[in-house]
What does this fold into?
Amino acid sequence: MHMTGPIGIWKQKIPVAGSGSYGSIKRPITAAQWSGLCGYAPDYLWECQESSGNLLPTIGTSATLTKNSTGQSYQLSVTNWFTKWVGTTLASAHGWASPSNLFTLHNTSLFVLVYFCLTNSDGSVRSMVNLRSGDDLNIRARNSNPGIQMVINGSAANTASVYENATPTPHAMAFIYDRSTSLWRTRSDLQQGTGTYAAMANASRTFGIGQMGAEQNAAGARYNLIVAWKGANAEAMTARGGAGLGGTQLLTDLGWI
It folds into this structure.
């Protein structure tokens, strides 16, 4: 069951912290809905509503996120959300990964939005969202609080906090690569962080969630929506609201902040 907003955008009924009432989070799923919300249709969108197997794009082509093991969870429920979630088990090899040439960085900007829920953590760093090929981006569940951090090229010097405390409730995170500055930015519904990496190789990259390649095993997490803009569309999304504020503007438009 879905609820529709005044311009036909799907909404989710969620608790408003501390208020005892409910608010609505927008969940656009078509190119027209995204264009109506922010002016730019995404290049790729994964709804994560499958009951088994791979995660198929509903916007974009040649972008299937292929399951890398067995045991991933599907059709999971989260309180007050009308759509379902897919999930990875803590410390497992669970994950889904794109073709190896989905994104090419260094000469192409990227803007990605993820709706997720961190369900549990342990004493180790665990993998959530990845871009891989030599120098890479890894969004990890940290081993404290629990929290989440962004790590660029595996370097502690290029690490930024994304969440100080990610409780087991739904959250949204935007992460952005600006090719003109070689700057990574993140913005969540809780806080923002910035990490830099001076020069990323001009290489194709695999995108995925959960465990990928040599990265740490998966976090205990659920995923509900993944959306990506690249190239000129990503740069336009990044510029919305002012220089470097595109993530904040998008999460505001969607009702997260």
The longest strand covers residues 110-120. The chain has one domain: 3-253. Confidence is low (pLDDT under 50) at residues 1-8. The radius of gyration is 17 Å.
